[in-house]
Design goal:
Helices cover 45% and strands 14% of the residues. The protein contains 15 helices and twelve strands. The radius of gyration is 28 Å and the shape is globular.
Length: 411
């Protein structure tokens, strides 16, 4: 800025000299000088505005969102319950994220976790699946009222009469009367299917639709992992692509979720956290390469992994949309995803538990646990994950959520 002012003074000095008194030369020089001074003032104003924005972002939280602050909240909880690792993130709708992790990747080993480590998030996959399917609704390739028989005409005559008129919305809201498949006994009752992931989900869909509804569709909620497999198979049919590809193209890539993937992260990268099962002797590491895998048929219901920063990015997208901002989906479409089934004030919507506390979803694989909570009115969300399952998962996560609320929720 000072250099520009000196330039103007120098030009005025030259103008005072005899050889620059010609109007033909001096007037353009004066114009150049005054333009440089104006431009310099504009740059100064922009710098001041940018500094103001940076300052505002730095003070989004009364505690400034220090990562070491989150870690100091996680450590006492982890030590009290003896869990191998805990990770958490806090996010605003503008995308400001802070995350931290504490503990070890594998119990009995001294390799520390970081906030870049990937945790399986279990059923938090469901709101992601519903988000991807909503992109097809916006495109007109599917509708919330689309029936499986509309998409799979070859199954029409084989579908059980009680399931003939179930809709995409009912599948995502757990109101279609599909078998639950929440425990090992249910899962063991389903046959094995061959082929690639898409072929397995198609065969599973065919098998499911031939079973009698466990309750009258639309009458009551029956939480069903299998219902999400059917919904994903419908998206695969109308797109001609696997649901894994659809998740990557329509969700992970647009939101910058570079860590997101499928299955146990440690199966492909041994440096990632291992899962653990609770036992009377503490938490026992689960080898990511053994026979226990979530598998293709259940992927749309609960087989995504990611780090806490990327889970926060997903939360921030939903917060922005709930506050009226369009992006990979129109705001009105996202609001539909968060509307409890049947117009109720609270209950399960399309991938979210909605109540007076917030919009949330739990995730558990028996060996990993996670929780995601959105507070749309406050433009604020929190996520927590741990590499254990089968113990006091909910109690541990609630302790962390309560601590994060006390520290970071806008007053």
């Amino acid at each position: 800025m000072l250099r520009t002012k000196f330039l103007l003074l120098f030009l005025l000095f030259l103008f005072s000299m005899q050889k620059f008194r010609s109007a033909i030369i001096s007037i353009p020089l004066l114009c150049i000088g005054f333009f440089a001074l104006w431009l310099d003032n504009q740059v100064a104003a922009q710098v001041k505005q940018d500094n103001t924005i940076i300052s505002q972002r730095a003070t989004l939280s009364p505690r400034k969102h220090p990562a070491d602050g989150i870690e100091s909240l996680l450590n006492p909880v982890r030590q009290k319950y003896g869990v191998p690792a805990l990770a958490a993130s806090v996010v605003r709708s503008d995308g400001s994220i802070v995350s931290a992790a504490t503990g070890v990747r594998v119990q009995g080993r001294e390799v520390r976790v970081t906030d870049k480590d990937k945790f399986s998030i279990g059923s938090i996959t469901k709101p992601m699946t519903a988000t991807v399917i909503a992109t097809f609704v916006e495109q007109g390739k599917l509708a919330w009222t689309t029936r499986p028989s509309d998409v799979f005409p070859e199954f029409k005559n084989a579908i059980h009469p009680t399931l003939k008129d179930i809709t995409l919305e009912q599948l995502l809201a757990h109101r279609a009367g599909i078998m639950a498949f929440e425990d090992d006994k249910d899962i063991a009752a389903a046959p094995e299917f061959n082929g690639n992931a898409t072929q397995q989900r198609l065969a599973f869909t065919n098998w499911l639709l031939q079973r009698e509804a466990v309750v009258a569709p639309g009458s009551k909620k029956v939480y069903s992992n299998a219902g999400y497999a059917i919904a994903a198979a419908m998206a695969e049919r109308v797109s001609g692509q696997s649901f894994e590809t659809l998740m990557r193209k329509r969700l992970f890539k647009p939101l910058g979720m570079k860590s997101a993937g499928f299955g146990w992260a440690a199966r492909k990268d041994s440096r990632q956290p291992w899962a653990h099962r609770a036992s009377s002797d503490g938490f026992v590491p689960h080898n990511p390469n053994d026979s226990y895998q979530i598998g293709a048929r259940w992927m749309p219901a609960g087989d995504v992994h990611c780090n806490m920063k990327d889970l926060a990015k997903f939360a921030a997208f939903h917060l922005r949309a709930l506050n009226g901002k369009n992006s990979i989906l129109r705001a009105e479409t996202v609001k539909k995803l968060h509307m409890p089934y049947g117009g109720a004030k609270s209950g399960y919507s399309l991938g979210w538990n909605v109540n007076s506390f917030g919009h949330s979803h739990l995730g558990g694989t028996g060996t990993f646990s996670a929780m995601l909570v959105l507070f749309p009115k406050e433009n604020f969300a929190m996520a927590v994950a741990m590499n254990t399952g089968g113990g006091k998962d909910d109690e541990v996560q609630n302790k962390v959520i309560d601590a994060l609320l006390e520290q970071y929720k806008p007053k």
